[in-house]
Specification:
The chain is mostly helical. Helix content is 65%, strand content 0%. It has one domain. Helix 2 runs parallel beside helix 4 and helix 4 runs antiparallel to helix 5. The radius of gyration is 17 Å and the shape is globular.
């Protein structure tokens, strides 16, 4: 399955557009998210063993590097050329990163940061494929 989202094209009768499930899968940069979860797990694990370690600065750097890498990876490895898909996938990485292992942990409007980011993750993941058709 190609990674780029196919929109409906009346010129091509045999090329079916991607349905919701296909768009959902193609808009989540799973390889980049897996890399972030692995790296953040290593950082958090080592920070626990060293009480002087400040993991937040390193996590911010990793988020920045992977955010820049996301569209590059999608273009070079997955052959995605649609700017909208690259943008939504990059934003998707950021949403996933902040919902899984964020360097930011303060409350937002009296709610725990983890609750807010989890709700945003669910809503983003479900709504973007409804609106972005390719």
């Amino acid at each position: 399955m190609a990674r780029e989202i196919k929109a409906a094209d009346p010129q091509l009768e045999d090329a079916a557009p991607n349905d919701f499930k296909d768009r959902l899968i193609k808009l989540i940069p799973a390889e980049i998210i897996a890399a972030y979860i692995t790296i953040s797990g290593l950082i958090i694990g080592f920070a626990k063993s060293d009480s002087n370690a400040d993991k937040s600065n390193l996590l911010w750097i990793i988020i920045l590097v992977l955010m820049i890498l996301t569209p590059v990876y999608l273009v070079k490895v997955s052959r995605v050329s649609k700017k909208g898909q690259l943008m939504f996938s990059t934003i998707g990485f950021l949403v996933w990163a902040f919902a899984t292992a964020s360097p930011y942990t303060n409350e937002i409007l009296g709610f725990s940061y983890e609750l807010i980011t989890s709700v945003i993750l669910i809503l983003y993941t479900l709504f973007i494929p409804l609106f972005y058709k390719g």
